[in-house]
């Protein structure tokens, strides 16, 4: 076996496996984590020591600690601590050492410092089991509980062994006929039916027909764990002696051998546990770190250690136990720092770093498949095996901050014809040739900040800068051949037909290399379909050569093609309406299967050949969420794709990168009811008997006005990326969408009846799970609306109706003789009342004059008469001057008296056939029939003078009243309102002219 320590050699393990080592043997390389997510007490874990990890049949993760059990749904922990009151609320002891899962029932066994308990998943209660040996002594300290390979359940204590009897639901003491006292820490059965016991005093084996057998090689040595490897080996871990193994065959000689090569290279010889995961890798938890290897000969041994002075992969030194969940996540427990999780899919996208600075700028490949890239420290090279060389720097004795800053690499290009690496920097052009020790400046191109760099087949260069436009440079003499002024250049593509495509901050340009002619595809006179986006970040030609791929700032990917019919270029949005169409693109690569891979401001996106339904990759896959640089994109000769970011180069094989196919269970995790106690999985309300995640129905009482149900999709790899939608059938007509931060459905004041809450969720990649969460919500009506209450109400109502009917018939018969008399009396009363009502509806209460409605009715009749050929009539609109002052100074009682007396004066000066009415407030209206404008004005003047002479006495005060009158005459073809409006305008003119006057359609003669 070979040993690699975490450091520079760790990057080697992240690359493609070496094909040959020393040309003598093949190295089997395990998958090595590059990132763990750490969780501990600050996240809700009850205590930092995680002694065991298990996944139940629903998908919850369980962690045993020195302070009870913890159930985890990806967002929250539910703590089950010591059962102080013996009410089934938790395990018997504080310290839970081991757990075992009954895969049929979902029940969980917990071995603790005070006894053995079974978690009844159906009722969410802990049932405790006394372990009493044949001497009648109860064993309280239970170190382990295990289902062996045949399904038998065993419990090991510090004094003996017990086997579970399902018929009696109890444990039977197994007498080992051994005087030695030891603590049993793990139990397993081999292919021959031999039971192996890992104990504090060594390794023991027994069979029903044979006595306990001591393994001499491990006598007196603590054996901590037993693991079945590849279904044909059994490995035993020890505290201080590394790992031993035996073949799991029918050979009964029990040949146990130390794995000396592996044990000598472990991160510590004190091993806590061994776990082989589904891909064959073996994770070994030790008190000095984590060791990962495989069972094959010459397999690599990877040691992951914790060092305080460095950014650590591990959260601590002392590893306790490893577990692989159904979704493929690896969970690693520790003795002092909680637990960590590792998602193997996060290795789909790897990171290439060099030196001490993560920032990378500039990237290219040579004809050998070497990747060249720049950092603030200089130029680096990564070969096909993953080895990194460099940095190459400029020859400068000081290499101070100012020099490095001004000569920082910004772009790279490789010229195959001259085998030269060309380097664009912030201060000009440089190059590196074979066997050249230092980078050299091209003296003819200095002072230009070069952003993009491209070489052609003959070795000439095309440079794009921030403020120097596009520069065409001779690759041999370094002299400028031609220069085009333009906006900042982001990307240059040399086409095979002699044209040069130039992406800029001001659109896409197409330059004829031979004539120098420039076609501006962002010109203002171009139609939208033929106009490029303003900021073009990328352009490359499709593999079929029929079109181009264009990247843009804020508008995703566009397809550029030439339309022969219109003799013009057409821009088509790719995946319109998708999130991708709103992103800024850094680079685009097309793989051998026609898939497009795009680096974006948020991560990496993939489009299939149909160019629909983009897939997105984020940091849970190993992608950099810091975003990716413009024009930092390439595909190497081995088909690996590289994208450059501010924190290193991301590279991957397209065939290895895929979205998660895990379809998580959708579970309800908490129920809260307003007015009732908060219901969770530890303390459910009386509305249902099962835990909320098991319940099929929730019954709400009439007083339960508001309820909330929390839910979770059990994809625990990156739960922050899970998405949700829910709908309450019978209430909601559409789906309600929500994120992982608001996983709760709340409803208020539901009508009595039955509803169904349906919840859907996605995995971390936004793919909707096939599983759904579904629960019935039954709202019980109040007692007076129940079925039996309705029957009672109906019976009472029918009885009352019958009684009422009989009584009514009797009353009607008795009163029938009096009815005719009463009808006559009532008729008379109604006639009198109608007259009173008629008066009330036509007379103004205060003045006794006709009201506005009655005036209009009479006026309309007079208008009809006029239209049939009658004489004209005049409308007088009258307003009491300064009436508001009367109210403000003397009060409303005085104002009412002024209105009454003024009305009486005006009424006394009109004819019987004329109409006077109160129009509103202090305004009156009068219709004078058979009168023209002149006569109307004269009558109005008489009325004005009469009002002026009348003195209103109020509380020993004499109040003089004046009025202003507007006069208009009806004309042929005119409607009533038009005539009234003219009178109103005349009234307005009179008020503006000083009040106390008459204004008619024709001025009065003086």
Can you walk me through this structure?
The strands form 18 sheets. The protein has a five-stranded mixed β-sheet with strand order 1-26-25-24-23, with no helix packed on it. The protein has a five-stranded mixed β-sheet with strand order 60-66-65-62-63, with no helix packed on it. The protein is built from nine helices and 73 strands. It is flat, with a radius of gyration of 48 Å. It is mainly β. 40% of the residues are buried. Strand 70 and strand 71 (957-960) form a beta hairpin. Residues 1-26 and 676-688 have low confidence and may be disordered.
Which features does this protein show?
1006 residues; mainly beta; 73 strands; 15% helix; flat; disordered N terminus
Radius of gyration based on Cα positions = 48 Å
Show unreliable segments.
Answer: 1-26, 676-688
Q: For the terminal residues, how far apart are their CA atoms? A: 131 Å
Mean pLDDT: 89
State the helical fraction: 10-25%
The largest sheet is:
5 strands, mixed
State the helix count.
9
Silhouette: flat
Number of strands: 73
Strand order of the largest sheet: 1-26-25-24-23
Q: How big a fraction of the residues is strand?
A: 35-45%
Please state the structural category.
mainly beta
Secondary-structure blueprint of this entry?
Layout: E1 2-5, H1 10-14, E2 37-39, E3 52-55, E4 61-65, E5 68-72, E6 77-80, E7 96-101, E8 108-112, E9 115-120, E10 125-129, E11 142-147, E12 153-157, E13 161-165, E14 170-174, E15 184-189, E16 195-199, E17 202-207, E18 210-214, E19 223-229, E20 233-238, E21 243-247, E22 257-258, H2 260-265, E23 271-276, E24 282-286, E25 289-293, E26 300-304, E27 319-324, E28 330-334, E29 339-342, E30 350-352, E31 361-365, E32 371-375, E33 378-382, E34 388-392, H3 401-406, E35 409-415, E36 420-425, E37 428-433, E38 440-446, E39 450-455, E40 461-465, E41 470-473, E42 480-484, E43 489-494, E44 499-504, E45 507-512, E46 518-520, E47 536-541, E48 548-552, E49 557-563, E50 568-573, E51 585-590, E52 596-600, E53 604-607, E54 615-617, E55 633-635, E56 641-645, E57 648-652, E58 666-673, E59 679-680, E60 697-700, E61 706-713, E62 723-729, E63 736-739, E64 744-748, E65 753-761, E66 773-779, H4 787-842, H5 852-867, E67 874-880, H6 883-890, H7 892-908, E68 915-920, E69 923-928, H8 933-949, E70 951-954, E71 957-960, E72 963-969, ...
Parallel strand pairs: 1-26, 60-66, 72-73
Antiparallel strand pairs: 2-29, 3-4, 4-5, 5-6, 7-8, 8-9, 9-10, 11-12, 12-13, 13-14, 15-16, 16-17, 17-18, 19-20, 20-21, 21-22, 23-24, 24-25, 25-26, 27-28, 28-29, 30-57, 31-32, 32-33, 33-34, 35-36, 36-37, 37-38, 39-40, 40-41, 41-42, 43-44, 44-45, 45-46, 47-48, 48-49, 49-50, 51-52, 52-53, 53-54, ...
Helix pairs in contact: 6-7
């Amino acid at each position: 076996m070979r040993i690699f320590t975490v450091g520079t050699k760790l990057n080697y393990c992240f690359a493609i496996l070496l094909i040959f080592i020393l040309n003598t043997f093949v190295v089997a390389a395990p998958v090595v984590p590059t990132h763990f997510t750490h969780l501990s007490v600050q996240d809700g874990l009850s205590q930092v020591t995680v002694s065991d990890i298990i996944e139940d049949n629903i998908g919850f993760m369980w962690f045993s600690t020195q302070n009870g059990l913890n159930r985890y749904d990806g967002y929250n922990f539910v703590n089950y601590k010591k059962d102080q009151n013996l009410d089934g609320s938790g395990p018997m002891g504080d310290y839970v050492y081991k757990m075992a899962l009954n895969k049929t029932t979902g029940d969980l066994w917990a071995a603790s410092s005070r006894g053995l308990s079974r978690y009844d998943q159906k009722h969410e209660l802990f049932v405790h089991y006394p372990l009493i040996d044949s001497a009648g002594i109860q064993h309280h300290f239970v170190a382990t509980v295990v289902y062996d390979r045949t399904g038998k359940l065993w419990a090991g204590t510090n004094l003996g062994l017990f086997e579970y009897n399902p018929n009696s639901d109890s444990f039977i003491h197994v007498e080992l006929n051994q005087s030695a006292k030891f603590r049993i820490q793990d139990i397993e059965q081999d292919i021959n039916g031999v039971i192996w016991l890992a104990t504090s005093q060594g390794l023991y084996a027994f069979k029903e027909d044979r006595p306990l057998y001591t393994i001499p090689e491990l006598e007196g040595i603590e054996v901590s764990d037993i693991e079945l490897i590849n279904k044909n080996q059994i490995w035993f871990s020890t505290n201080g002696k590394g790992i031993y193994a035996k073949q799991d065959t029918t050979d009964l000689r029990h040949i146990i051998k130390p794995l000396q090569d592996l044990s000598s290279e472990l991160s510590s010889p004190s091993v806590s546990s061994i776990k082989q995961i589904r891909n064959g890798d073996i994770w070994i938890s030790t008190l000095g770190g984590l060791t990962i290897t495989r069972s094959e000969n010459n397999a690599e041994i990877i040691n992951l250690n914790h060092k305080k002075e460095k950014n650590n992969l591990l959260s601590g030194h002392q590893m306790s136990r490893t577990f692989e969940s159904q979704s493929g996540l690896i969970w690693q427990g520790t003795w002092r720092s909680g637990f960590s999780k590792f998602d193997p899919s996060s290795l789909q996208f790897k990171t290439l770093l060099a030196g001490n600075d993560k920032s990378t700028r500039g990237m290219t490949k040579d004809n050998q498949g070497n990747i060249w890239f720049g950092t603030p420290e200089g130029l680096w090279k990564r070969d096909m095996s993953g080895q990194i060389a460099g940095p190459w720097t400029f020859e400068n004795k000081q290499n101070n901050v100012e020099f490095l800053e001004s000569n920082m690499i910004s772009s790279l290009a490789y010229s195959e014809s001259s085998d030269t690496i060309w380097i664009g920097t912030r201060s000009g052009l440089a190059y590196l040739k074979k066997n050249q020790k230092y980078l050299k400046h091209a003296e003819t191109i200095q002072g230009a900040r070069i952003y993009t760099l491209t070489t052609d087949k003959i070795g000439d260069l095309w440079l794009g800068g921030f403020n120097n436009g596009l520069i065409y440079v001779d690759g041999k003499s370094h002299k400028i051949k031609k220069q085009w002024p333009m906006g900042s250049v982001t990307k240059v593509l040399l086409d095979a037909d002699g044209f040069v495509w130039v992406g800029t901050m001001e659109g896409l340009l197409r330059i004829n290399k031979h004539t120098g002619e420039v076609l501006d595809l962002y010109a203002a006179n171009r139609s939208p379909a033929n106009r490029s986006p303003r900021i073009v970040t990328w352009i490359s030609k499709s593999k079929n050569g029929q079109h181009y791929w264009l990247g843009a700032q804020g508008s995703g990917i566009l397809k550029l093609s030439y339309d022969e019919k219109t003799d013009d270029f057409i821009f088509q949005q790719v995946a319109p309406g998708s999130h991708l169409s709103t992103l800024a693109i850094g680079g685009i690569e097309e793989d051998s299967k026609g898939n497009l891979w795009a680096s974006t401001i948020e991560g990496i996106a993939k489009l299939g050949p149909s160019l629909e339904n983009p897939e997105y990759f984020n940091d849970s896959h190993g992608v950099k969420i810091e975003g990716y640089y413009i024009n930092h994109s390439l595909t190497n000769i081995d088909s690996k794709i590289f994208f450059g970011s501010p924190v290193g180069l991301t590279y991957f094989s397209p065939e290895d990168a895929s979205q998660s196919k895990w379809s998580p269970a959708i579970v309800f995790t908490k129920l809260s009811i307003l007015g009732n106690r908060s219901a969770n999985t530890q303390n459910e309300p009386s509305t249902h008997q099962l835990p909320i995640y098991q319940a099929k129905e929730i019954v709400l009482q009439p007083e339960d006005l508001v309820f909330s149900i929390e839910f979770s999709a059990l994809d625990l790899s990156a739960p922050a990326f899970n998405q949700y939608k829910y709908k309450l059938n019978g209430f909601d007509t559409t789906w309600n969408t929500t994120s992982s931060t608001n996983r709760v459905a709340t409803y208020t004041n539901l009508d009595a009846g039955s509803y169904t809450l349906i919840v859907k969720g996605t995995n971390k990649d936004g793919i909707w799970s096939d599983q759904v969460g579904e629960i019935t919500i039954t709202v019980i009506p109040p007692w007076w609306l129940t079925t039996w209450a309705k029957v009672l109400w109906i019976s009472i109502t029918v009885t009352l109706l019958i009684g009422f009917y009989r009584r009514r018939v009797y009353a009607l018969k008795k009163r029938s003789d009096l009815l005719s008399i009463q009808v006559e009396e009532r008729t008379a009363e109604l006639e009198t009342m109608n007259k009173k009502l008629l008066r009330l509806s036509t007379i103004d209460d205060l003045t006794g004059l006709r009201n506005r409605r009655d005036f209009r009715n009479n006026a309309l009749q007079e208008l009809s008469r006029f239209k049939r050929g009658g004489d004209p009539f005049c409308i007088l609109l009258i307003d009491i001057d300064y009436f508001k002052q009367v109210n403000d100074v003397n009060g409303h009682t005085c104002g009412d008296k002024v209105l009454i007396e003024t009305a009486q004066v005006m009424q006394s000066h009109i004819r019987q056939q004329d109409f006077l009415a109160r129009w509103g407030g202090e305004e009156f209206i009068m219709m004078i029939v058979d009168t023209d404008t002149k006569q109307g004005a004269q009558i109005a003047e008489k009325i004005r003078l009469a009002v002026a002479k009348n003195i209103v006495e109020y509380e020993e005060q004499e109040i003089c009243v004046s009025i202003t009158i507007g006069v208009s005459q009806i004309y042929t073809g005119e409607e009533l309102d038009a005539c009234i409006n003219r009178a109103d305008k005349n009234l307005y003119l009179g008020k503006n002219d000083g009040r106390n006057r008459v204004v008619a359609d024709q001025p009065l003669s003086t």
